[in-house]
Amino acid sequence: MSNPDCIVVGGGAIGLMSAHFLVERGRKVLLLEKGALARESSWAGGGIVSPMYPWRYPDAVNRLAVYGQRRYPEVLARLRDETGIDPELLPSGMLMLDEPEPGMWEWADKWSMKIERLTSRQALDAVQPGLDARFESGLWMPEIQQVRNPRLAKALAARARHTAGLTIREHAPVAGLLQQGDRITGVRLDSGETIAADSVLITAGAWTGGLMPPGCPAPAKIEPVKGQIVQFQAEPGQLTRMVMRESRYLIPRKDGLVLIGSTLEPGSFEKRTTAAALEDLKASAIALFPALAGCPVVNQWAGLRPGTADGVPFIGPCPAIEGLFVNAGQFRNGIVMGLGSALLAAQLMTGEQPFVDPAPYALG
Predict the structure, then answer these.
(1) Which uninterrupted H or E stretch holds 139?
(2) Do 87 and 155 meet the contact criterion of CB atoms below 8 Å apart?
(3) Pick from 115, 163, 119, 155: which is nearest to 138 by CA?
(4) CA dist 193 to 175, 178, 204, 211, 267, Å?
(5) Mean pLDDT along residues 93-118
(6) Greater confidence, 36 or 268?
(7) Please, are residues 250 and 244 in contact by the beta-carbon 8 Å criterion?
(8) Domains of the chain and CATH, by start
(9) What is the pLDDT of residue 268?
(10) Which of 62, 76, 233, 61 shows the shortest CA–CA distance to 148?
(11) Ordered DSSP codes for 285-311
(12) How far is residue 340's CA from residue 73's CA, in Å, rounded to a whole number?
């Protein structure tokens, strides 16, 4: 291809969606991915289409999350029709076995989200039978959905490969950015190849900080936070609701697979799974839903989330370097915030009026 208008560095879900929105706005885009498309945190997460305990987060997180929650059903149905790959968006709801928290009801009113207080075992059983006998109350959020994120990632990649105006290069790690003065002029690959472009968007998740040049320091605050997940094989329909307590969650898939996650291990790019995490997660799962004690563990994996101090991502231009943009730092909420994050980044890069105030996401 001739030189692109824009290079997107990072081929996870957010990079793929950002590239799609840029192409829709008439840009010729090259997407570079250091490995295979959407195989890092996009693939490794649980796929809950909501922040965990969303009332604990700033409005900047909830604004993007609610955008995604309201538009994913239409967007993912269209993606399924275009690619033949069903991301399995399921209205599982979230049953929280925690006590109400300060700010919870105010959050629900502000964002028009339903929370029901369940005050008896009978009420719990009506939502999800089979929970551990010690639970006698909970909070039911019937509108919370889940997506099977490996299938979503596969569908996004399939669409990208057949999108006119978008070129994909996998296994093409970027070594650095090219500059002339205070302006970006392209990228340099590990192979030594250079590619010119008028603008560069960094969507490299936990690796974003390492790609930023001096003068644009804010994304260095993004750190890798490893999360391990364990997967059980239960009978389809045995568990039908997402269940959460004290930040541990169960996610049931249509085929009977049940995920229990996840650990929070900051500070390292090492993705090795551990026997200690396996036993800890298994114990948490069985303590929520005892029938899982009779179900085999079929998988365990780890991924690296791009962590920030308050969960608010960096989205927008680097103020010191013309043509350089960032969309990273979604931490545990890359799927639910991804759609809005990608749209905002594309709007800022093309001079379109943004659909939300970009100030809370600004670098620096």
Answers:
(1) strand 138-141
(2) yes
(3) 119
(4) 10, 11, 19, 16, 31
(5) 96
(6) 36
(7) yes
(8) 6-80+150-221+310-361 (3.50.50.60), 94-143 (no CATH), 223-307 (3.30.9.10)
(9) 85
(10) 76
(11) HHHH-GGGGGS-EEEEEEEEEEE-SSS
(12) 14
**Residues forming a β-bridge with 7:** 30, 200
Single-letter amino acid, residue 253:
R
Q: How many CB atoms lie within 10 A of CB 210?
A: 14
pLDDT band for position 42 (cuts 50, 70, 90): confident
Among 328, 329, 320, 314, smallest CA distance to 8 is for 328
Looking at residue 213, its pLDDT comes to 85
Q: How far apart are CA 317 and CA 152, in angstroms?
A: 28
Rounded-to-integer distance, Cα 249 and Cα 234, Å: 16
Write out pLDDT tens, residues 168-192: 999 999 999 999 999 999 999 999 9
How many CA atoms lie within 13 Å of 353's alpha carbon, on the beta-carbon side? 0
Q: Which is nearest to 3 in space by CA: 25, 29, 26?
A: 29
- Which residues fall within 8 angstroms of residue 278, CB to CB, at 6 or more apart? 228, 230, 297, 300
Question: Within the chain, where are the H helices?
Answer: 13-24, 41-44, 59-83, 104-111, 121-127, 149-161, 275-288, 334-350
Q: Provide the b/e sequence for 307-328 (b: ≥16 CB within 10 Å).
A: bbeebbbbbbbbeebebbbbbb
As a whole number of angstroms, the distance between CA 279 and CA 285 comes to 10
The DSSP-derived string for 144-170 is: --B--HHHHHHHHHHHHHT-TTEEEE-
Q: How far is CA 39 from CA 105, 216, 218, 327, in A?
A: 37, 27, 25, 18
Q: Are strands 6-9 and 174-180 parallel, antiparallel or unpaired?
A: unpaired
Q: For residue 273, which amino acid is it?
A: T
Residue type, 62: N
